[in-house]
Structures are given as structure tokens and as C-alpha cells.
Amino acid sequence: MRDILDLERYPLDRPDSVGWSDLVNQCQADLAREGMFNLHGLMRADVAAQEVARLSSKFATESFRHEREHNIYFLDHIDGLPDDHPALRRTHTSNQTLCADQIGASALTRLYEWPEFTRFLAATMGRSALHTMSDPLARINVMSYHEGQTLNWHFDRSEFTTTLLLQAPEAGGAFEYRTDLRSEEDPNYDGVARLLRGEDPEARILTLSPGTLNVFKGKNTPHRVTKVQGKRDRVIAVFSYYDRPGVQFSEAERIGFYGRAS
Ligand SMILES: O=C(O)CCC(=O)C(=O)O
Ligand SMILES: [Fe+2]
């Protein structure tokens, strides 16, 4: 993995070393404080650039244009919530998505399936194990956003989301998030409505650099990607892991996110 990752800086391949334990402790502290951690420059910059070049023709010809109006839940209706509640305010999303079956054998697939990577991620989250998805489309996605495009406010399906930025835009395309806006016990619909009005003082903005791994607790932390500005696309890989093996999206979810079920 040394050909694609900076393992001098991040010793993911040496789980018995002090350096590995120190890194895990640091990530755990960041997760507890911020709901996320970042490994800047985990993927080598030239490898990230090669992936962008390799995928650019696929983006041009076979990507799914994910374009829709949606609410923060990506659901048509929430039981117990009137359909006109401001927490259900609709926003617009537009980007291009490539699914795992289109990405093929690549540095991204190698990283996603590398057992030491899963082991490291599980340790940062205080879990005994994490598992790759069996969903042939959802396990790895690469998304590109060109000028004016955005992924609007949403909560994720999985508790943790793991992304790796491959190419940064000239401007915009920042990751905006609001840590722990809701919990399993409290959906905090009024807090959601306030965030959607742009009035939540706890919302934070993160500007990622290419090669950076970002792990964040997206299930209760709403987040969005602000509009990309300039000619260079924002390109980012999204890896999905779950605490049990064999997880798949439903057919309806696949059609919503990818425009196809298989
Ligand atoms: O593009 C990003 O930085 C965020 C991606 C994301 O939130 C998601 O795929 O759920
Ligand atoms: Fe997300």
C-alpha cells in the first residue's frame, strides 16, 4: 500500500506499533470533540490525480446525474411530523456519481478492501470490527461536482461516513456540518428547521485538501457540500462500512441515489 498511501506519516500497516496507537488515540479524541477526524495527505497526491484522470472519461459518459429536490432525511414523509413542517423544507442537490461497479480495480478499491484500513477505522470508532458493504453499487462511490453543483443538507444512513478528496475545486465546494444536531432519543425537528434557515451558530465549515481522509459521524450530524465555484471539478470518493457484514441498500434507495437498481 506504500505506493498509494503515506504510511510513514500514518502507520496503518503496523497495528502493533506505538505510532499506530497514538494515531488511533488522536482520532478518537477528535471524534469525541468534533464528530470527525482528518488524515491530511493519506493518499499520495499523484495517485489521487491519477484516479481523477482515469475516472474523468467515465464521468463524461456513464455517470449518474444525481439531481433532485429532497429534504434533509431523503424521505417523503416522517411519521409524526406534518408534511409542511419546516424541518422538511426541500433543497436541491446536483452532482455526478460513479458506483463501485464502474470504478473497477483501482487504488480506491484497494484501499476500501484493505483489512488494515478497516481495522484502523474500527479502532478509531471503538468497535471490534467494521465490514465492507456487499452492495455492488453503494460500497464505493466517487462523486464529482462542477461549477454550481452541490450536495445539499442531509443525514447519512450509516453512522460513520468515510471520504477521501481526490480533487479540490478552485473555490466553494466546502464541507459544512453541524455536529450532533439530533440523537437517537431526540430528532430535534426545531433545531433542524433552524439549521435550514441558516440560523444555527454551531454550523462549521471545513475545506478539504486532495488526499485527505475524512471520517465523520454523519448519521446525527447533518452536512452539505456548498456550491462549487470555478472550472475545476470537486471529486471525492465515499467509502461505506457497517458494523455487520452483508449490508445492502434497498432497491428504492439505489434507484434514488444511482438511477438504477443493479
Ligand atoms: O462530498 C462530500 O464531501 C460529502 C459526501 C456525503 O456527504 C455523502 O456522500 O453522504
Ligand atoms: Fe453525507
The CATH level-2 architecture is identified as Sandwich
Oligomer: single chain
Terminal residue distance? 30 Å
Name of the level-1 CATH class: Mainly Beta
Number of helices: 7
Roughly what percent helix? 25-40%
Count of domain modules: 1
Gyration radius over CA: 18 Å
**Which small-molecule species are bound to the chains here?**
2-oxoglutaric acid, fe (ii) ion
Cross-sheet strand order for the largest sheet: 1-11-7-14-5-3-2
How many β-strand runs? 15
| Major beta sheet summary | 7 strands, antiparallel
> On the 0-100 scale, what is the average pLDDT?
95
Shape type: globular
Uncertain residue segments = none
Write down the secondary-structure element order. Answer: HEHEEHHHEEEEEEHEEEEEEH
The CATH superfamily appears as q2cbj1_9rhob like domain
Helices and strands: which structural class?
Answer: alpha+beta
Strand residue content: 15-25%
